[in-house]
Q: What sequence folds into this?
């Protein structure tokens, strides 16, 4: 008998607490780092392009390993993989505090991405492995809310810590939470959940996928340079080869039928890719805008950026519960439409834009994202069988990470066209604002296109 069959009454609650704590810490780390980027740039004299790699290096390693590690979790046990991820993230968070060069910081961020991949590929799968079908939306809503609480507290506390204790204090702050979660896993999480125990692991497919997705994301982020175009083409070719290999492999890391014969699964993942592509870099751009153009401190900028994830945290549980009763696709499509509206409002931003206007736009964007995220996740996970939870969660996480890198890539590309390798100074404020506005116009158009992908997914036929 699989260990996960020996359930106790409190097991779903324990899994929810552990999953929620992990869901809080990792986005808190990400959003607090964004608000600290100008401080890092000043210390190491970095331009905006190099600064963006402190974020993108994390996302690259995360995306490359999510899918293989999701399969590892299904075969070897999701608890083992989740625990290893917590340990890696804990140690790398401590190690980054001694970083005294941009190169070392980026290397540590890569390792943090590896730890994040261990966590993200299994956390949702563990939670849903023990949560009754009728309560999945509610559980997902709570974890998504914790994600957005982490996101909302990141700019605020990150700004406070950066301003008073320096940017390295951010990584000291998350270490105790990671250690606490690791202790909770070992003491209270009794299951293992290896639903694909005994099946083979596709090593060749894993390497092909990891290399291809890195080439794709790296190439995209270096457009329109010739080396970016070549690398992007190599990545696309590699992903096509990977798909062909998985069709012919007895035990693939990605079951292609999930994408090619499961309409809900395919279009829900496409909607996630588009949504993150259209929204993720907004925080990066506005962090630079508020600190460089408006002259705000990290704490003041964080208090403005706080409103978007705060709305996400407030309404995600409601959206999750609603998606247990109403078709998730309907709620997610409405949420994406609201996000597009919030982005359209931000296209009017300028040097003298009223801060209250920016806050209102961010609140609408956050509300739309809340309505999209947990129902969309519910649609993805409810459209597959239990033994595929790990792979399904990893594919969704990959879509999220690829979307985030594409979002950063779009923003970086446009800023590089306008600013080149220059830092933001009073003399080029108007040029920076022009690049920022064009970026948000592109994001708004992308989000509008995403509404169509969300609407055509069809109805979810919930599986046990």
A:
């Amino acid at each position: 008998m699989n260990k996960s069959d020996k359930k106790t009454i409190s097991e779903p609650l324990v899994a929810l607490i552990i999953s929620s704590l992990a869901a809080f810490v990792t986005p808190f780390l990400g959003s607090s780092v964004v608000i600290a980027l100008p401080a890092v740039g000043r210390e190491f004299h970095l331009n905006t392009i190099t600064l963006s790699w402190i974020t993108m290096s994390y996302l690259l390693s995360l995306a490359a390993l999510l899918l293989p590690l999701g399969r590892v979790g299904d075969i070897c046990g999701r608890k083992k993989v989740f625990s290893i991820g917590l340990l890696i993230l804990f140690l790398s968070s401590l190690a980054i505090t001694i970083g005294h060069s941009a190169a070392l910081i980026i290397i540590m961020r890569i390792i943090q991405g590896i730890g994040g991949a261990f966590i993200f590929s299994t956390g949702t799968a563990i939670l849903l492995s023990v949560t009754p079908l009728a309560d999945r939306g509610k559980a997902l809503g709570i974890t998504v809310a914790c994600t957005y609480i982490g996101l909302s507290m990141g700019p605020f506390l990150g700004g406070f810590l950066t301003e008073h204790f320096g940017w390295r204090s951010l990584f000291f702050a998350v270490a105790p939470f990671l250690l606490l979660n690791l202790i909770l896993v070992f003491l209270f999480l009794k299951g293992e959940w290896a639903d694909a125990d005994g099946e083979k692991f596709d090593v060749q497919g894993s390497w092909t996928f990891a290399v291809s997705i890195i080439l794709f994301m790296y190439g995209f982020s270096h457009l329109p340079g010739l080396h970016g175009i070549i690398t992007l083409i190599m990545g696309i070719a590699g992903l096509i080869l990977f798909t062909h290999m998985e069709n012919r492999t007895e035990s693939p890391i990605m079951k292609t039928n999930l994408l090619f014969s499961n309409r809900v699964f395919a279009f829900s993942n496409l909607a996630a890719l588009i949504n993150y592509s259209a929204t993720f870099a907004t925080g990066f751009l506005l962090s630079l805008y508020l600190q460089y153009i408006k002259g705000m401190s990290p704490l003041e900028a964080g208090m403005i950026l706080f409103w978007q994830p705060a709305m996400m945290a407030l309404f995600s549980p409601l959206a999750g519960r609603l998606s247990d009763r109403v078709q998730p696709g309907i709620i997610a499509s409405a949420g994406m439409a609201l996000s597009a509206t919030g982005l359209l409002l931000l296209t009017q931003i300028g040097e003298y834009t009223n801060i209250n206007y920016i806050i209102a736009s961010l609140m609408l964007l956050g509300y739309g994202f809340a309505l999209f995220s947990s129902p969309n996740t519910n649609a993805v996970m409810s459209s597959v069988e239990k033994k595929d939870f790990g792979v399904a969660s990893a594919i969704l996480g990959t879509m999220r990470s690829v979307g985030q890198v594409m979002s950063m890539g779009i923003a970086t590309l446009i800023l590089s066209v306008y600013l080149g390798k220059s830092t933001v100074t009073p003399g080029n404020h108007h040029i920076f604002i022009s690049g920022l506005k064009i970026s948000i116009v592109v994001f708004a158009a992308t989000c509008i296109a995403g509404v169509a992908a969300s609407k055509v997914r069809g109805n979810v036929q919930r599986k046990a």
